[in-house]
Design goal:
single chain; alpha/beta; 11 strands; five-stranded mixed beta sheet; six-stranded mixed beta sheet; 263 residues
Length: 263
């Protein structure tokens, strides 16, 4: 059986640590690096539900995308049982459940989050959107399509509960994608000649600016635009560790719901 350390190294071989942004926290964040592993659960986030699922399935390790601790939005100040983060971390330590997180290094890596997102949406010949390889730009394999048709494709391909978009009056052909919150790169998408940008967590003002700037924008949600990488992680680990039990989390899914009048 491989150790946690060996699995971490295999993931760093795929998504090198050096690709992570300086504020990020990647790799083995919880657990014993020398513990042997026979069962692994893969999820976008390590939540209390995901930890409970891993323990129920007798997994020794969770591999996730988002850091469970000590990145810029999840600094650890306490390990209190009466806080969600403290309760989760205390349970993982108590139950000897390891957690490996591959975040912005997996965003930037070839074959990682953004290549998986581009592939899911039919964007071919993807190249980097930013100088540090976050995001991708490419063209639709089917040729230009109306925005309404492409919006439906995005929703279906990513299993979105709903999505938001702004129409700049252009057909969709050259597309930029950015898994997760990449709205800050909209001007780079425009500079790359893109008519459409698919990302998540766009602000009101970013939607407001889209039409005057001449670009369609689609906010398909943080979870849907990044969860596409979980099958990639499973595939990579299966190739290297065929004897491992590997499964994608069934408990972790999109948490945002949309109200539609008449339902």
């Amino acid at each position: 059986m491989p150790t946690v350390r060996e699995i971490e190294q295999s993931l760093f071989d795929f998504a090198p640590k050096e690709l992570a942004m300086d504020w990020d926290n990647v790799g083995l964040l919880v657990g014993d690096p020398d513990r042997e592993v026979s069962r692994v659960l893969v999820a976008l986030d390590i939540t209390e539900d995901v930890a409970a699922e891993a323990l129920e399935k007798h997994c020794q390790l969770i591999v996730a995308h988002h850091p469970v601790m000590n990145c810029k939005w999840l600094p650890v100040q306490t390990l209190r049982e009466d806080t969600p983060q403290g309760r989760l971390l205390r349970r993982m330590v108590r139950e000897d459940l390891a957690g490996i997180c591959m975040h912005t290094n997996l965003d930037a890596a070839m074959g990682g989050v953004n290549d998986a997102l581009a592939e899911a949406l039919g964007v071919v010949d993807p190249g980097p959107l930013t100088p540090d390889s976050i995001g991708r730009t490419g063209t639709l394999s089917c040729g230009p399509v109306p925005l309404g048709k492409f919006v439906k494709r995005v929703s279906a391909a990513l299993s979105c509960n709903g999505l938001r978009y702004a129409d700049a009056g252009k057909p969709v052909h050259r597309v930029a994608v950015g898994g997760g919150a990449c709205g800050e790169y909209m001007d780079l998408a425009i500079a790359a000649g893109c008519d459409t940008f698919v990302t998540a967590d766009l602000s009101y003002h970013q939607f407001l600016d889209a039409k005057p700037k001449g670009i369609n924008v689609i906010d398909a949600g943080h979870f849907p635009t990044e969860d596409v990488v979980c099958p990639v992680i499973l595939s990579e680990l299966r190739k290297l560790f065929p004897a491992l039990y590997l499964e994608k989390s069934a408990s972790h899914r999109e948490v945002i719901q949309y109200y539609v009048e008449g339902e």
